[in-house]
Amino acid sequence: MKGPLFYAKILLFGEYGIIKDSKGLAIPYNSYQGALKKSEKSSVEAIESTKNLLKFYNYLTKLETNLVVFNLDEFKADVEEGMYFDSSIPMGYGVGSSGALVASIYDKYAENKITVLENLTRDKLLKLKQIFSLMESFFHGKSSGLDPLNSYLSIPILINSKDNLEATGIPSQKEGKGAVFLLDSEIMGETEPMINIFMNKMKNEGFRKMLNEDFAKHTDACIDDFLHGNVKSLLGNVKSLSTVVLENFKPMIPQRFHNVWQKGIESNDYYLKLCGSGGGGYILGFTQDFDKTKEVLKNFKLELVYRF
């Protein structure tokens, strides 16, 4: 048995903001993927994955919802035969490792599932997101459902608000000097503690005002520029967003990257932002000259995501 591949995702814009109903843009990232598998020879990782799938099965048996019905008998039988999730997606890196797993389980075991081949109305997208939110809450305590949605459909998704999603297209990559890239912090991040820090910050009126005004304004402008291919304006807006994030989300940025972040803003060589909830994993970068940025950040591991 080998199931279909489900890819990693990158939330280009909207981290934390989408919890509070502002815009977001998520794209699939095909460099990493995972699939459900069974094999005769089991590695330590495969055995660990099978154990986690059994816990996930137990979680789904207790899920009270009218949104979805799973063939849980088949799921349990497959787990007992040693099924595991074979994945190259790094865990705790903000690129949707649990999302791909959730997508694969829905794809294999949901009855009357919504598929990518049908007309994906707003209602269908919302229903899928709600189902995935319930499923992925097993991993994070509270999930928007966006990571599995992106992985399952493997198309860019524009989040206008919590209840308003649409499949979207992004400009095709160009052979330019500019790029979106990932910077590896080489630290594993954990989503739940970061979300807790954010929720505590939300009790502060000044922080809420910043989120609703500055953060949302720059995020919306970045999304608009990216979707319309306005590169010059995009980089200016990403710089503003990077500055706001450095000032207000310091606990989510690993300590050793505070200076690296600031240097990018001061030199205009590159601009950094959070990728997912932060605290480690990947940091997302934007630059008008990727070759120069690779030289400037030569002590760090960079991965190319998108050229413009």
How many helices?
10
What fraction of the residues are assigned to beta strands by DSSP? 15-25%
Largest sheet data? 5 strands, antiparallel
Helix content: 40-55%
Give an overview of the whole structure.
The chain has 308 residues and is α+β, with helices and mostly antiparallel strands. It contains 10 helices and 9 strands. The strands form 2 sheets. Strands 1, 2, 3, 4 and 5 form a 5-stranded antiparallel sheet that branches. Strands 7-8-6-9 form a 4-stranded antiparallel sheet. α1 runs antiparallel to α2, α4 crosses α5 (146-153) and α7 (205-228) packs antiparallel against α8.
SSE layout and pairings?
Blueprint (H helix, E strand, L loop, with lengths): L5 E8 L10 E14 L6 H18 L10 H9 L3 E4 L9 H13 L12 H19 L5 H8 L3 E5 L2 E4 L11 E6 L6 H11 L3 H24 L2 H18 L9 H10 L3 E4 L7 E6 L2 H7 L5 E6 L1
Antiparallel strand pairs: 1-2, 2-3, 2-4, 4-5, 6-8, 6-9, 7-8
Helix pairs in contact: 1-2, 3-4, 3-5, 4-5, 7-8, 8-9
